[in-house]
Amino acid sequence: MSSAMDSQRLTEEEQLEIRERLSEIDKNGDGHIDLKELREALDLCGLKIAGYQSRLIEEEYKNSKKTKINGKLTYDEFEKLICDLRANDIANTFKTAVSKRENLQHLGGTSHASNAGTTHSVRLEEQLAFSDWINSNLQHDPDLGKLLPIDPEGKQLYEKVQNGILLCKIINHSCPDTIDERVINKGKLTLYTKLENLTLALNSASGIGCNVINIDAHSLEKGTPHLVLGLLWQIIRIGLFNQITLEHCPGLTTLLGEDEKIDDLMKLSPEAILLRWVNYHLERAGTHRRVTNFQSDITDSEVYTYLLKQIAPADADVNMDALSERDLHSRAEIMLQQAAKLKCRSFVTPQDVVNGVYKLNLAFVANLFNNHPRLEQTNGAIEGYETIEETREERTYRNWINSMGVSPHVNWLYSDLADGLIVFQLYDIIKPGVVSWTRVHPGAGKKSSIRSFQDPTIADGKVVIDLIDAIKPGAINYDLVKTGGTEDDNLANAKYAISMSRKAGARVYALPEDITEVKPKMIMTVFACLMALDYIPNMDSANRQ
């Protein structure tokens, strides 16, 4: 794969945005896009192609083995298609556009990718949320008296950032003392002094880990909306996530599972920690509900209602009246009224909750955590904490790596760089073309994971099935995989896993019951056989080279 193609790799936020949009097409929620809906799906994700091109792509997929399921694309396959289309410079032929969606403002412009022009989308809900956050958190700053409050409904947000002062203040709010405020130009400003402030803000944002590639002082001085919102989100997110650490909240150790140690916690992203935190309180609340994302799992406000009740102080008078309301929009409003009692009604409106807007719901939960974690305090020193506490030098390296625009975001150097993929990205960013991406082995993108050979999640057989598909891409027919979680479903999956292991070439001697009953020694032999299957052909190939 060429460096140019790799440069089209989707960022983590782009992947989340795409999956949010695809949910509008994937009505049955099976995680697949029909080929007949391909053109509509590409249109939703900002790639307009001609009808004949759509038909050519459909025919190519029908006549090849590119898809695991005939006639359908998984989300991962669809994302790869987008990367391929970008790499083939499709934007040079067809105007890039985003679909006409509610709450999106469309802004015309030009770019190097297309002389015909591009269309950037601006989420109005983000504009409202960020304006409200700025008003709430910086309203008492004496230097901002003439800039605040910002009218969330109009264009004021993009106008108020143009002199750079507001951006510098936001950075210092998220990461205190990043900027010596004596350096900020104030008073009567010329174009030159405004650009100095904006340059200061951009370099400081880069210093705390923001990716400011393709953003310059002149773009911000013009108040370019999509660039302003993108930068603001990065700064605000960093400020919210900075407090989700053992240093700020030692009680995070409460979220560790059996056989887990502190370094396992350090490997988790802030989003993953927040998911654990929410599920921890849901379990304590006695409800069966659990969350795996901050999109579809929270749209009915039920999870939030339980969470708010669980973390609220006894004298806060937080109630669960929202659960008695059937209308989802009204229920979300009642839930947010309870959040207001905790002074945490930030980032989301009822509509944002119902729509499952990822960024804003993530920020809402992070704000709840920062203000009301309600985790049991550990007694005494935390074992091993001294060895994993991030040093200033490590933080500097991490921030620099993130500022280069790598994906996914690096949260902990010693785990996130372990597979080498981030390092390869850095090589290719610093010296484009130096990495031969055909020789790089990316992850399979599977969600399954285990902590030990005694992990009860092994019982449903899915982790073995996913491993087979990772070793032999496309080998598994996921239509045959059961998701009910019953004993019969688990046994059927285990039988399928054993048979597919043998079909792939692994000499597996374990029985399906060994998987469903989680027999650790026999399960170890299954993984050992699959490891040998994967390793030996690769070793032979390496020796031939």
From TrEMBL:
Per the record, what is one GO cellular component? cytoplasm
* Transmembrane parts of this sequence: none
Keyword flag rRNA processing: no
Q: Which GO terms describe its molecular function?
A: actin filament binding; calcium ion binding
| The organism's place on the tree of life at top rank | Eukaryota
The GO annotation for biological process reads: actin filament bundle assembly; actin filament network formation
Presence of keyword Repeat:
yes
Sorted UniProt keywords? Actin-binding, Calcium, Metal-binding, Repeat
Q: Which residues form the EF-hand domain?
A: 13-48
Checking PROSITE patterns in the record gives: ACTININ_1, CH, EF_HAND_1, EF_HAND_2
Residues of the Calponin-homology (CH) domain: 124-240, 268-373, 428-535
Q: What is this protein called?
A: Plastin-2
